[in-house]
Amino acid sequence: MACYYSKFPFVRKVKDLTSKTITTVARGLLAEQGIPEQIICDNGTQFTSQEFKKLADEYRFNIATSSPHCPKGHGFVERQVQTVKRTLVKCRKTREDPHLALMSIRATPLRANMKSPAELLNGRKYKTTLPTKIQPPIDQKETRAKLAATQEQAQRHCNKHAQHLPEMLGGQHVHTQDPITKTWIPAKVVSRAETPRSNMIETESGRQLKQQGPHPPNIRAAEENVYNTPQTPVRSRRFTRWRKNILPPVRYR
């Protein structure tokens, strides 16, 4: 599939050419790129099937078919298919990454004084493996300011139910939860981690872990006793909303 305006080729690997497979791929592309006004295709059974027509009715776009047995009437897509096939064949022979090759096609300007397909479709230039300097868009500062304001609002909402964790010092004794046994075990702070509010700790067995905000022993001492103390299971009867007594079957008593 390709965009007539930007000449941007969309390449997907499919297991077969049935109408169900093609319709599923088309659904994914339309969900990513938006619904066009019209899709021009050939007269293959994949596009003339009821399943694809149902997709057109559901997503509200028109289907236009080219003239039968006339490839020139569908020359744009035929040229796109030829370019992609040649690129993939060259990549197979040279054992290069086909994704980088397709990205180069999408990032190459259509003409000397025109933009690339990626810039026409997405409104921005792609960063490729070639050493180029990409100029940021004009409204980048405004967009960054809006994103920062949204993140600050989410941070304030999250901090309403959070508490400040005390800063841990090197050599301080703490407690951490064992990821396997789910019990609280003593440990010691080794150093600060690169991520915020995280520390590298070392257990009594010499295992080093990275944990966010390890707890001092005086905070988790009571919880450690609760986790390590075995409890006797208590069988309780279940009641519904209307207090109707429900007993288990006789064979389970």
From TrEMBL:
Annotated stretches, region: Disordered: 199-224
GO annotation, biological process: DNA integration
GO molecular function: nucleic acid binding
Superkingdom: Eukaryota
Cited PROSITE patterns: INTEGRASE (PS50994)
UniProt feature, compositional bias: Polar residues: 199-211
Signal peptide location: none
Boundaries of every Integrase catalytic domain copy: 1-145
InterPro entries: Integrase_cat-core, Retrovirus_Pol_polyprotein, RNaseH-like_sf, RNaseH_sf
Name by which UniProt lists this protein: Uncharacterized protein LOC115224834
Native organism: Octopus sinensis
Encoding gene, per UniProt annotation: LOC115224834
